Amino acid sequence: MKDLLNWVRTNLIKERPEMFMKGETVRPGVLVLVNDCDWELSGQLDTMLEEKDVVVFISTLHGG
Protein backbone atom coordinates (compact mmCIF):
# COMPACT_ATOMS: atom_id res chain seq x y z
CA MET A 1 0.00 0.00 0.00
CA LYS A 2 2.86 2.34 0.78
CA ASP A 3 4.19 1.96 -2.78
CA LEU A 4 0.73 2.71 -4.22
CA LEU A 5 0.44 5.92 -2.18
CA ASN A 6 3.85 7.08 -3.40
CA TRP A 7 2.87 6.27 -7.00
CA VAL A 8 -0.43 8.16 -6.68
CA ARG A 9 1.33 11.21 -5.21
CA THR A 10 4.00 11.19 -7.94
CA ASN A 11 1.86 10.33 -10.97
CA LEU A 12 -1.72 11.42 -10.32
CA ILE A 13 -1.80 14.32 -7.86
CA LYS A 14 -1.13 17.45 -9.91
CA GLU A 15 -2.14 20.14 -7.41
CA ARG A 16 -2.09 20.41 -3.63
CA PRO A 17 -0.76 16.95 -2.69
CA GLU A 18 -0.92 18.10 0.95
CA MET A 19 -4.71 17.73 0.73
CA PHE A 20 -4.27 14.00 0.07
CA MET A 21 -1.18 13.02 2.04
CA LYS A 22 0.57 14.00 5.23
CA GLY A 23 4.05 12.55 5.40
CA GLU A 24 3.99 8.97 4.14
CA THR A 25 0.29 8.31 4.69
CA VAL A 26 -3.08 9.80 3.78
CA ARG A 27 -4.31 12.81 5.73
CA PRO A 28 -6.87 12.42 8.48
CA GLY A 29 -10.25 12.72 6.79
CA VAL A 30 -9.36 10.51 3.82
CA LEU A 31 -11.06 7.13 4.06
CA VAL A 32 -9.19 4.29 2.34
CA LEU A 33 -11.03 1.13 1.35
CA VAL A 34 -9.33 -2.00 0.03
CA ASN A 35 -11.90 -4.37 -1.45
CA ASP A 36 -14.65 -2.50 0.46
CA CYS A 37 -12.81 -2.94 3.78
CA ASP A 38 -11.40 -0.03 5.81
CA TRP A 39 -7.62 -0.25 5.48
CA GLU A 40 -7.28 0.39 9.22
CA LEU A 41 -8.52 -3.18 9.69
CA SER A 42 -5.97 -4.65 7.28
CA GLY A 43 -2.73 -2.99 8.34
CA GLN A 44 -2.83 0.48 6.73
CA LEU A 45 0.55 1.12 5.06
CA ASP A 46 1.55 -2.53 5.55
CA THR A 47 -1.50 -3.78 3.63
CA MET A 48 -0.27 -6.08 0.87
CA LEU A 49 -2.09 -5.51 -2.40
CA GLU A 50 -2.69 -8.22 -4.94
CA GLU A 51 -3.66 -8.08 -8.59
CA LYS A 52 -7.34 -7.15 -9.00
CA ASP A 53 -7.62 -5.58 -5.54
CA VAL A 54 -9.80 -2.47 -5.60
CA VAL A 55 -8.56 0.57 -3.69
CA VAL A 56 -10.85 3.56 -3.13
CA PHE A 57 -9.98 6.92 -1.56
CA ILE A 58 -12.90 8.94 -0.17
CA SER A 59 -12.40 12.42 1.19
CA THR A 60 -14.60 13.34 4.12
CA LEU A 61 -13.21 16.89 4.06
CA HIS A 62 -15.41 19.66 2.74
CA GLY A 63 -15.79 23.40 2.94
CA GLY A 64 -18.48 25.18 4.81
Short description:
There is a cross-link at residue 64 (Glycyl lysine isopeptide (Gly-Lys) (interchain with K-? in acceptor proteins)). The protein has 1 helix and 5 strands. The protein has 64 residues and is of the alpha+beta class.
Features:
1 helix, two-stranded antiparallel ribbon, 5 strands, three-stranded antiparallel β-sheet, 64 residues, Ubiquitin-like (UB roll), globular, Mopterin_synth/thiamin_S_b, Ubiquitin-related modifier 1 homolog, alpha+beta, 25% strand
Structure description:
- The protein is about 15% helix and about 25% strand.
- The protein has one helix spanning about 1-10; strands at about 20, 25, 30-35, 35-40, 55-60.
- It is of the alpha+beta class and about 60 residues long.
- It is found in: Cytoplasm.
Could you give the topology of this structure?
Elements (H helix, E strand, L loop, with lengths): L1 H10 L9 E2 L2 E2 L3 E5 L2 E2 L16 E5 L5
Antiparallel strand pairs: 1-2, 3-4, 3-5
